[in-house]
Amino acid sequence: MQLPKATLLALLPFLLTQEVTAQASGTGKTTRYWDCCKASCSWTKKTTLASGSNPVLSCDAKDSPLSNYDTKSACDKGTSYMCSNQSPWAVSEDLAYGFAATTIAGGKESSWCCACYELTFTSGAVKGKKMVVQATNTGGDLASNQFDLAIPGGGFGIFNGCTQEFGTPSTGWGAQYGGVSSRSACDAFPAALKAGCYFRFDWFGGSDNPGVTFKQVACPAAITAKSGGGNASY
């Protein structure tokens, strides 16, 4: 069946987006952060989701999921925070799952929000291991093909919602960029964030911003079960 020309022209922007995202792969860099702020992909209208899918969940100050996806971020004088279960975890010795803020070359936020990427680390103690991350956030300070891994104790970065949520000193939890420098520092973290903080010094081997190769993959159910964010419609 041949579609009418008018239909093809109407579909062209969508098809072009499909091509960019379907082929999303290459080399990139990683950083780390945990600012407690509502993730950008938690807002409705940030991406085109498959029927029945939702944006990424956000939580209140007691870590309970919010039903209103458009509740204002705590980092903008609101009451919506990143949920603590959006921390990384080890699946095996060589595979981990998690979440990241990212910027993908050739795309835009609507094309990478809720998408998943398999990262293969190319440097540091974590070299050779793989991590599948879901894009739950973005950032104006991110470079192209950068994955800012959501790791508790990874540094507040530009924003800090943790002081409001947990009473954390504004200078607490390590350096603004990079976070805590020892596993023992994680001992003082809130119970819900300790495992994610330990992850960096255990499975991640204390690696500091390792390089990666990456490719887009289908999101594992174990990831979307935590984020609540469905795969984008592509």
Automatic annotation (TrEMBL):
<dbReference type="InterPro" id="IPR000334">
    <property type="entry name" value="Glyco_hydro_45"/>
</dbReference>
<feature type="signal peptide">
    <location>
        <begin position="1"/>
        <end position="22"/>
    </location>
</feature>
<dbReference type="Pfam" id="PF02015">
    <property type="entry name" value="Glyco_hydro_45"/>
</dbReference>
<keyword id="KW-0378">Hydrolase</keyword>
<keyword id="KW-0732">Signal</keyword>
<keyword id="KW-0119">Carbohydrate metabolism</keyword>
<feature type="domain" description="Glycosyl hydrolases family 45 active site">
    <location>
        <begin position="30"/>
        <end position="41"/>
    </location>
</feature>
<dbReference type="GO" id="GO:0030245">
    <property type="term" value="P:cellulose catabolic process"/>
</dbReference>
<keyword id="KW-0326">Glycosidase</keyword>
<feature type="active site" description="Nucleophile">
    <location>
        <position position="35"/>
    </location>
</feature>
<keyword id="KW-0624">Polysaccharide degradation</keyword>
<dbReference type="InterPro" id="IPR036908">
    <property type="entry name" value="RlpA-like_sf"/>
</dbReference>
<dbReference type="InterPro" id="IPR052288">
    <property type="entry name" value="GH45_Enzymes"/>
</dbReference>
<keyword id="KW-0136">Cellulose degradation</keyword>
<dbReference type="GO" id="GO:0008810">
    <property type="term" value="F:cellulase activity"/>
</dbReference>
<comment type="similarity">
    <text>Belongs to the glycosyl hydrolase 45 (cellulase K) family.</text>
</comment>
<protein>
    <recommendedName>
        <fullName>Cellulase</fullName>
        <ecNumber>3.2.1.4</ecNumber>
    </recommendedName>
</protein>
